[in-house]
Design goal:
Helicase, Ruva Protein, domain 3; single chain; 61% helix
């Protein structure tokens, strides 16, 4: 029987794809950075690259921790620790960027999409932490009616 992708699986795949895209984009930008000799512009672009990277690091860390929680590799107490908390703060939560026309279009797109992904993970994190606070572990179940991971299947089936 084919496994259907869950919300967590799809979000993880989206995060990986966006991370690879951002890495490729930033590497290309660094190689071609000689085009702009304007230091303030280069610093502004570099700052925005950092915001994209910070969002993706926060998101991917959270998604990996969630997978570990749901598979029993870490405890709810470990998941609730500061180590796995979204700590991007204002720089990650601020949607500013896509409307900044002085930035390259590819960077504006990455800023927009990483912000949307980060905001989605913030909402999921709040739901998960609410469940954990009530003493429930959201393993192989539902979070407010959304199945986030498939239950393990019996290999004998």
């Amino acid at each position: 029987m084919a496994k259907t992708a869950t919300l967590l699986d799809r979000t993880f795949e989206e995060g990986v794809a966006l991370t690879v895209e951002a890495r490729n984009y930033i590497a290309f930008q660094e190689q071609s950075s000689g085009r702009h000799q304007d230091l303030p512009h280069n610093l502004h672009v570099g700052y925005q690259h950092t915001r994209v990277s910070a969002r993706l690091i926060q998101v991917m860390t959270w998604l990996l921790a969630m997978k570990a929680l749901l598979s029993g590799e870490i405890s709810p107490e470990q998941f609730n620790s500061a180590q796995y908390a979204l700590a991007g703060g204002e720089e990650c939560e601020n949607p500013l960027g896509p409307e900044l026309e002085e930035l390259p279009g590819g960077l504006r797109s990455l800023l927009d999409r990483t912000h949307l992904l980060y905001a989605r993970i913030l909402r999921l994190d709040a739901m998960v932490r609410e469940k954990l606070a009530m003493g429930e572990v959201p393993n192989f179940g539902m979070i407010q009616g959304i199945q986030i991971i498939d239950p393990p299947t019996d290999p004998c089936d």
